Amino acid sequence: MNWGEQVAARRQRVYEQRPLVHHITNLVVTNLTANVTLAIGASPVMAYAREEVADMARLAQAVVLNMGTLTGEVVEAMLLAGKAANKAGIPVVFDPVGAGATPFRTRTAQRIIKELHIDILRGNASEIASIGGFGGHTKGVDAAGAPARVADMVKQVARDLNTVVAVTGATDYISDGERLLAVDNGHPLLTLVTGTGCSATSIIAAFRAVEDDGVTASTAALAYYGLAAERAAAASQGPASFQVALLDTLYNLAGEELARGVKIRAL
Ligand SMILES: Nc1ncnc2c1ncn2[C@@H]1O[C@H](COP(=O)(O)OP(=O)(O)O)[C@@H](O)[C@H]1O
Ligand SMILES: Cc1ncsc1CCOP(=O)(O)O
Ligand SMILES: [Mg+2]
């Protein structure tokens, strides 16, 4: 099977299996990421209370931990959910939003990675640079300083942390420390809608729920998402119509059309 066919097959699996994705996410993107998860055929649930996060995580087929609007209570909830998921063998996908911007965020990202088994770490280049000790700085939640050779950094951080790392940007890079893949799909309008990185993480989690290999799941999810963005941009006048078109395109994009449009390179 070529990459295009593999992407279409994973997208079809999500649609058929409708995995439940438990999110502990941020106040900004809660609605968008729930709708993105529904549009691709999966099922979102957002639950934050320390009293229930472990139970909810055990019901899910994947867990998203997203530290976008962090509080002390959210950190405790993420650790409880993550530990329950780890114990039950449910994949955990971590989005370290804003790591490198403040000491609290950087410290929390390190703590989550240390105390939990993270299946996939997805962030922008400066968030991952900060976690991996590659310097750089994060401007709020947006990528700012990052090393020149992002691809090398991704592979090195994946190796150091013994996990799958997916770094997004104009080109996305995915590695488990051995394999290294690049995805060239995407559109600059994605940077003008808040929550599009968080949505990438949600789609990766849904794909990981139906695909045990984290590199394949992340690569397929990002190619599908990036191609949907290209198609949506072609039918949009600006960020607002783009956000609406993106949900519609994610819902409709599948099969041959998806398989033909993906741009994936092995490095
Ligand atoms: N300049 C760009 N051109 C095309 N696609 C992009 C560009 N920048 C980011 N993307 C895409 O936008 C999505 C969100 O990525 P990114 O902006 O890096 O995340 P975050 O919002 O967490 O910083 C990803 O799917 C990525 O491929
Ligand atoms: C703007 C903002 N502030 C805290 S979380 C958040 C959303 C970040 O979403 P994304 O990383 O997907 O752009
Ligand atoms: Mg982000």
CATH architecture: 3-Layer(aba) Sandwich
Kindly report how far apart the N and C termini lie. Answer: 19 Å
CATH topology: UDP-N-acetylmuramoyl-L-alanine:D-glutamate ligase
What count of structural domains? Answer: 1
Q: How many separate helices? A: 11
Query: Helix fraction?
Result: 40-55%
Q: Please name the fourth-level CATH homologous superfamily.
A: Ribokinase
Radius of gyration: 17 Å
Strand order of the largest sheet: 2-1-3-4-5-8-9-10-11
SSE series = HEHEHEHEHEHEEHEEEHHHHE
Using the coordinates above, name the CATH class: Alpha Beta
Mean pLDDT, rounded to whole units? 96
What sort of overall outline do the alpha carbons produce when their principal axes are compared?
globular
Return the structural class: alpha/beta
How many β strands by DSSP? 11
Given as residue ranges, the uncertain stretches (5+ residues, pLDDT < 50) are none
The main sheet comes to: 9 strands, mixed
Family: Belongs to the Thz kinase family.
InterPro entries: Hyethyz_kinase (IPR000417), Ribokinase-like (IPR029056)
EC number: 2.7.1.50
Cofactor: Mg(2+)
Helix and strand topology:
Blueprint: H1 3-17, E1 20-24, H2 30-39, E2 43-46, H3 53-59, E3 62-66, H4 72-88, E4 92-95, H5 103-115, E5 120-124, H6 125-132, E6 138-139, E7 142-143, H7 150-161, E8 164-168, E9 172-175, E10 180-183, H8 196-210, H9 214-234, H10 239-252, H11 255-261, E11 264-266
Parallel strand pairs: 1-2, 1-3, 3-4, 4-5, 5-8
Antiparallel strand pairs: 6-7, 8-9, 9-10, 10-11
Helix pairs in contact: 1-8, 1-9, 1-11, 2-8, 2-10, 3-4, 6-7, 8-9, 9-10
Catalytic activity: 5-(2-hydroxyethyl)-4-methylthiazole + ATP = 4-methyl-5-(2-phosphooxyethyl)-thiazole + ADP + H(+)
GO molecular function: ATP binding; hydroxyethylthiazole kinase activity; magnesium ion binding
Cofactor: Mg(2+)
